[in-house]
Amino acid sequence: MSQAWLLLLAAGLLEVVWAIGLKYTEGFSRPLPSVITVAAMIASFWLLALALKSIPVGTGYAVWTGIGAVGTAILGIVLFSEPATAARLACIALIVAGILGLKLVSGGA
Description:
Blueprint: H1 3-25, H2 31-51, H3 57-80, H4 86-105
């Protein structure tokens, strides 16, 4: 996996951190979760921007948001007891398939 794809993966994982962090900030009224969330946002965008130097913007953005969506949905199930219905899990699997498909058709970028 190229450095650009590793940067994109890290950016996507940080998107999960800040998306989940939003829940813990309670409207940015809690200082520590707020600082962590904003730091994760900045780092996520920065890594995404670096990855997009080599990866097409449409592919990079779709993969970044896909990683964030899947990770956030899974952590929502685990941390917040959100429903884990078969339909919801199937939809998450489709997003994962889309991420993998974009990686495969994008080649070694």
